[in-house]
Amino acid sequence: MLKDITLGQYMPGNSVVHRLDPRTKIILTTVYIAMIFLVSSPVWYVVPLLYVTLAARVAGLSFRQMLKSVKPLRVLLILTFVLNLFFSGGTTVWVRWGILAVTREGVLLAVHFSMRLIFLVLGTSILTLTTSPVALSDGIEILLRPLRVVHFPAHELAMMMTIALRFIPTLIEETDKIMKAQQARGADFESGNLIARAKAMVPLLVPLFVSAFRRAGELAMAMEARCYHGGEGRTRLRILRFTREDAQASAVSLLALAVVIAGRALL
Amino acid sequence: MPIQVEHLTHTYLPGSPFSATAIHDITLTIEDGEFVGILGHTGSGKTTLVQHLNGLLKPTEGRVVIDGKDITRKGVSLLDVRRQVGLVFQYPEYQLFEETVAKDVAFGPKNMGLSKPEIDERVRWAIGQVGLEYEAVAECSPFELSGGQMRRVAIAGVLAMRPKTLILDEPTAGLDPRGRRSILGMISRLHAENHMTVLMVSHNMDDIASLATRLVVMSKGELIMTGVPREVFRQREILRAVGLGVPQGAELCHRLREAGYPVPEGLYTLSEARDAILRLAGRAVPDAETAAPRASETDPGVASSGTGAASAKAGEPAAAGPSADAPPAGDAPRAPETDPAGQPPAPDAPLSPAAPGKEANA
Amino acid sequence: MQAQTPIETDRVAYRYEEDGPLAVDHVSLSVRPGEMVAVLGHNGSGKSTLAKLMNALYLPTEGRVLVCGLDTAQEEHLWDVRRHAGMVFQNPDNQIVATVVREDVAFGLENLGVPQPEMIPRIEDALAAVRMIDFAAAAPHMLSGGQKQRVAVAGVLAMQPDVMILDEATAMLDPSGREEVFATVRKLNRDKGITVVWITHFMEEAALADRVVVLHQGHIEMDGTPREVFSQVERLKALGLDVPPMAELSGMLAAGGLALPAGILTVDDMVKELRACLSKSST
Fold this sequence. Notes:
- The structure holds three protein chains of three kinds.
- In chain A, strand 1 and strand 2 form a beta hairpin.
- Chain A is mainly alpha-helical.
- Chain A is built from eleven helices and two strands; from the N terminus they run H-H-H-H-H-E-E-H-H-H-H-H-H.
- Chain A folds into two domains: 157 residues, no CATH class; 74 residues, no CATH class.
- By secondary structure, chain B is of the alpha/beta class.
- Chain B has two domains: 239 residues, Rossmann fold, CATH 3.40.50.300; 65 residues, no CATH class.
- By secondary structure, chain C is an alpha/beta fold.
- In chain C, the strands form two sheets. In chain C, strands 6-7-8-3-9-10 form a six-stranded mixed beta sheet, with helices on both faces. Chain C has a four-stranded antiparallel beta sheet with strand order 2-1-4-5, covered by helices on one side.
């Protein structure tokens, strides 16, 4: 059934990448993003390529799974490529159709920005493919904890993420049910123009919102009844620990970053 | 407008790792005017089955034919199907969305493209049918009503489409006894007075025993039994094996039989149990009219067939029971068994009230 | 078993809005240690409001509520009251917080600041007590309604409460789910001596409690053992409540001239009494 589909992209596993502390993975993903932005010419994408390939291999992710994560971005990718190709200016004209000209600089930029986008997505999906949403929200909470000094609600943010994750399947199921119930009364969600379709959503969205508010109220009461009073004085069942693997993964990542920086300096 | 379900199979997410067969090879015919109770444990496929009957789900295999028309074929107007077969979901009050009750009830008729006067007329009618007063509730927000009233409004929203067949999925779930009784009374009226065909999904044996003319028992996606309540409740062991019980009246009769008392098979209402016990004890069996039936035992068909056993013996001479207690005021007390130790009263009394469509299904 | 009265309400009254009617109308109820009290009543009888007064989710408009001797109206007792009196609600979906069963059971312990090493055995014990230990790593949305409610019970149990208040915890379940949740709580009540306040509108469940309190329009209408309460068939009917079918049959038999002893609630009772009665009359 609809609710049985696993959430997000997470692919459960027990590889080194899966086992890494979520904090490590979040930090290393940030390092990786910095690395992408530091790549100065298309040739040097060979480093993130090697890095991503290695990480994916270790994590046991197939080429197809990786490709799937890029798929939703295909329109944006094509747009990025085309726009850069034709509108980057440059002097070395290779082909010209009327006002459109393909220049050497244009091709380079088009490849460069497309690569950047592809590698950004590939790298971050390794994070989401190998880290459960719960671990992710844990990692974020702890990493953001120092910001509490400036009254940043790190705990509340993480609690909200947890609750959202908990309720997404429930709400998906509910949407399906309300949709069917309205269809049984002759509602049509599939045909008509954009405005007609948007209007057709009202009988679905109103009950869904009413229900979400009701659930929120009941949940708040249930949480209070179980002595919830914010992050103050709270202990945690899940405790995150750095291991040797975290250190090793960090070393590999920093090495890759160094290569890219060196490449930038040399060329 | 018979509904024929032929070899219906439904698999959720076929081909995916989450693939699950919810119902398997179901064949069933529902005749006009029947009140069919669909019984089964949670996950037995009841809900999946009924969602096929108005085209909300498409079968993986098999077909559904309504009035000779295969509704599972491509190109069939689903709006037409939904006009014929109304489906009330479990907790239907959660689908209300309009500002006023009247507008919400009008949603279905409006989708059917009816004229304004026609819609108004239907909205009034439907609100009346569910036992609410149009003037009092029409302009209220549905969200201001009590839970039970909201449920009635939601049912009115389906009735306003004037379906010939009404399907209700657990219509009494979550209601208190009073709310439950009044919803059941309302459904019973819709069946009796408006001659609607009713299908009611329930896991409450007692609710269904008092209303249905026929029961369909499902387990693990299969149809395992169908027949009049009396026949189905005889199969106590099968019902228990699939996690269902029998009404307490039937359970009591069974237990007494087990203990060696000559109680006929096939009894299940409390009045039948009472009559059987009074006979065992050598007391006079009260008249069907004077005996106050249980509030929930409202189905006249069931009640009359229940006293069939008694009336079969009515010709025998009356004899006073050994007890000094007078039988209850009834002008002509039915003849009790003369032997208090209990010679079985009419062991095979007429047990099959006229109910159409008794095709057995393994 | 604790000697202290787990819950005592002293002429407690509650209204939702100023000038509104009293939802709970001066109820004085003393729940004895270790007993299972069923609070029966139809919607609007005030039973859910009363439940929420017992856990300091609502504070009395008038009168007071003592939980293990602590006045719920006193701010400083708030968290102690809620730890002593755990609560399970009606909708199984709307009281589970975490995405993994084990972590949901931990939620209350985390809130109480229980050290992590101590949490693990408490969670395991609680899950074992409700027979959900095999589902410790499961996602709540994959469980049945009855299983979810048992997880909710475990979440309360792990907090080691003296009394558990279940506010229509079975109303949204199917018969087998209802049975499994009731049996689980009844067992905790018997084995661990946890006092239980079981709010319900199912008379079948109330019939199995130690004591039945019937609420009507915010006040206590009946209070006694199940036998005492359920033999009053007419009075229950007048209140719009269900009557156990066997109690009703007993009344019907009496009307037919066969008087059986009072207090028949179950098929077992009925079979027993009938055997006694019939063997007498046949000899």
